[in-house]
Amino acid sequence: MSGAAKPRPIRAGHDGPATTVPAFRATGLGRRYRGSWALRDCSLALPAGQVIALVGPNGAGKTTLLHLAVGLLAPSTGQAWVFGEPVSGASALPRVAFLAQDKPLYADFTVAEMLRFGRLMNPRWDDDLARRRLDELDIPLDRRVGRLSGGQRTQVALTLAVAKRPDLLVLDEPLADLDPLARHDVTRALMAAVAETNMTVLFSSHVVSDLEGTCDWLVVLNRGRIQVSADLDEFVSAHRLFTGPDDSADTVADGHQVIARSGAGRQVNLLLRGTAAVADPRWTGRAAGMEEIVLAYLRDPDLAALPRPTLAVL
Amino acid sequence: MLWLTWRQYRGQFLATAALLLLLGAVFLISGVEATVNVLRDAPPGCPGPGAGCRDVNLALSERYQLVYQGFGLLPLVGPALVGAFWGAPLIAREYERGTQRLAWTQSVPLRRWLLVKLAVLVAAVALGGLMFSAMTSLWLPIFAAVQPGSFASPDTFNATGVAPAAWWVFAFLLGAAASAVLRRTLPAMAATVAVVALTVPVLVLTQGWYAEPMRAVVSGTDELVRQNALLTGEAWVDGTGREIGGRPEETCPPAPGVDVSTPERAQRATAACMTQRGYQYVVFYHPADRFWRFQLFQTAILLGGGAAFAFATMAFAWRRRT
After folding, report:
1. pLDDT tens digits, residue range B299-313?
2. Residue B276 half-sphere exposure, CB side, CA atoms within 13 Å?
3. How does the average pLDDT of chain A come out, rounded?
4. Which of A34, A72, A109, A171 to mutate to test the interface with B (most CBs of B within 10 A)?
5. Chain A residues within an 8 Å CB radius of B107
6. Contact call for A120 and B102, based on CB within 8 A
7. DSSP letter string over B131-194?
8. CA-CA distance, A281 to A299, in Å (whole number)?
9. Cβ of A70 under 8 Å from any chain B Cβ?
């Protein structure tokens, strides 16, 4: 990275139609625990109607950001809104559903009692949807929640969240602790629910490969700071991987934003951003995979890809 | 919210109802048994203060000593149980199981969730306390002659009238505040029991301060005790009405040859000597008709504390959201 110019945040992705209120918006959002910052200076706007993935290594502050978004946590600095309403306000609560990482349910309730809980606690509750979903999943209503399998419990918790009929569904690591089959089932159920209800989904994951083919918008969080917030397709296509001889690498890199540089000996790989082509015929370029781009960003917390104009108006 | 509160507190509702039923059964059986076995053959006017009643009084006391002792613990045990099992789990159990992340992300805002729960449970606990008080009030008169009156004894004072309800509500809200601060059920239970165990004796000992005590020159306290008065102090005064300092034994040391083999005899001898020298025995007391005034005063103290705990519960739950 030594030869590269210090990367500057550049505009990546669209900001959505100007008339749409962002599903989630934050300005200067930060949260401190006993002196150390779990999340700092987070400003972003997430478009409505999309599936948004929040990725980052363990301890990056994903759960903190999600808890701030649903009002479970009060911010130390800054503010956050859901569809323009302050989070944790009485008017925002019915519009947001949250599925916490450990899928909390009342273990001594039966599944039917959990549905009753959902119905009594939520004015927009869709009882038919909930019962149909559980029926399709063969989850008996008279079974105690504590006696369900892990996958079934996740499905009940997800049903509870979806039947609330939220405009924004927030899920914290929904696929962690699930076996491959259950992961597949839950992902499919989630995608079906999205297609059916047109809600915005914000979910976190530390497994980047989970995102392939499921999400529209990508947010990368690293060491408590937002690194990337961009339309996934535009973000991926804005990066190219070039391979060429070591002696001309600095010349090629000059004037471009180098995201990553790797390779030993005479051959060097450069991950460049915003570059159509390299003139030097000894260099070959190819499209980069999402996973390798994200990993490159995570390795260098100083890199950023944020929609600057959005930041300016916030 | 009503259903949810009931569903989450079903165990407490049923256990409390069962314990109250059990207590009622003990009261009923001991009351009926006392009436049948002891009081049926008692001479007229007995049990009572009359000299002819001594045997009946003794029989009644001995027969139900265990019940009395158990009963004497209830003003302490009742609030401790209510605080530990109704109050302490309120929020701590949610935190421990992570279900606050479920409960507080539904459409009901946290403040309303907490307010409804507190209100419903306070009502339930107060109702339980009143039921306990009603049962005690029906049971106690049977033993009135051999038990201190409901005003004079802190045990019965805190088991009758509105005192049990006030104590239970206080303990519940104390437990709720402990659960909001500590966020763990067991430590919250321990803290609640500790504070209840501290508050009960403090309030019992300071009860006499609720009003200016009355003063009377008497020859002995038996009559006042019989009238169910709450005694708060005693003194010897000289002819000018001035209280004498120090113990009466210093003024009237036992003369040689006087029988002082038991504390009672020594006391009687000292009293006789003091009277002979022109001193008067004065007691300070609250007459029995101040019962309700004291009950309401204590209730105001307990409910004031309870309101502070309720406020602390709300403030901590709201501020330390995680």
Report:
1. 999 999 999 999 999
2. 8
3. 85
4. A72
5. 93-94, 121-124, 164
6. no
7. HHHHHHHHHGGGGTTTS--TTT-HHHHTTSTTHHHHHHHHHHHHHHHHHHHH--HHHHHHHHHH
8. 29
9. yes
The span from the CA of A255 to the CA of A152, in Å, is 53
Provide the pLDDT for residue B264.
80
Q: Interface pTM (ipTM) of the complex?
A: 0.84
Q: Does A159 touch chain B (CB under 8 A)?
A: no
Q: How far is the alpha carbon of B60 from chain A, nearest alpha carbon, in Å?
A: 48
Please tell me which of the candidates A106, A107, A120 has its beta carbon nearest to residue B3.
A120
Contacts of B29 (CB under 8 A, 6+ apart): none
Closest approach of chain B CAs to the CA of A115, in angstroms? Answer: 12
Angle between helices B163-182 and B89-97 (to 10 degrees): 30
Residue by residue, pLDDT tens for chain B (322 residues) are 899 999 999 999 999 999 999 999 998 988 888 878 776 777 776 766 667 777 777 777 777 777 778 888 999 999 999 999 999 999 999 999 999 999 999 999 999 999 999 999 999 999 999 999 999 988 888 777 666 667 878 888 999 999 999 999 999 999 999 999 999 999 999 999 999 999 999 999 898 889 999 988 888 777 888 788 888 888 888 877 788 777 777 777 777 777 777 888 888 888 888 888 888 888 999 998 899 999 999 999 999 999 999 999 999 998 766 5
Assign a CATH topology to domain A24-234.
Rossmann fold (3.40.50)
DSSP helix/strand/coil, B38: helix
The distance of A176 to chain B (nearest Cα, Å) reads 17
**B234 contacts: CB under 8 Å, gap ≥ 6:** B221, B281, B282, B283, B284
Question: What are A138-144's contacts with CB under 8 Å, separation 24+?
Answer: A139/A111, A140/A111, A141/A110, A141/A111, A141/A112, A141/A115, A142/A110, A142/A111, A142/A112, A143/A110, A143/A111, A144/A107, A144/A108, A144/A109, A144/A110, A144/A111
Which residues does B209 contact at the CB level (< 8 Å), separation at least 6? Answer: none
Side chain identity at residue B10, one-letter code: R
Q: Does the distance separating the beta carbons of A104 and B319 come in below 8 Å?
A: no
Instruction: Assess whether pLDDT exceeds 80 at residue A81.
Output: yes
- Decide if B4 and A120 are in contact by the 8 Å CB cutoff: yes
CA-nearest of B19, B22, B2 to B11 is: B19
State the pTM of this model. Answer: 0.87
Q: Is residue A88 within 8 angstroms of chain B, CB to CB?
A: yes
Dihedral angle computed from the Cα positions of residues B145, B146, B151 and B155, in that order, rounded to the nearest 10 degrees: -150
Answer for the pair A119, A89: CB distance below 8 angstroms, yes or no: no
**Cα–Cα distance, B9 to B90 (Å, whole number):** 9
Interface of A with B in 114-153 (CB under 8 A): 116-118, 120-124
Q: Which residues pair with A26 in a beta bridge?
A: A44, A80
pLDDT for the residue A307: 64
Residues of B in contact with A116 (CB under 8 A): 3
CB within 8 Å: A72 and B98: no
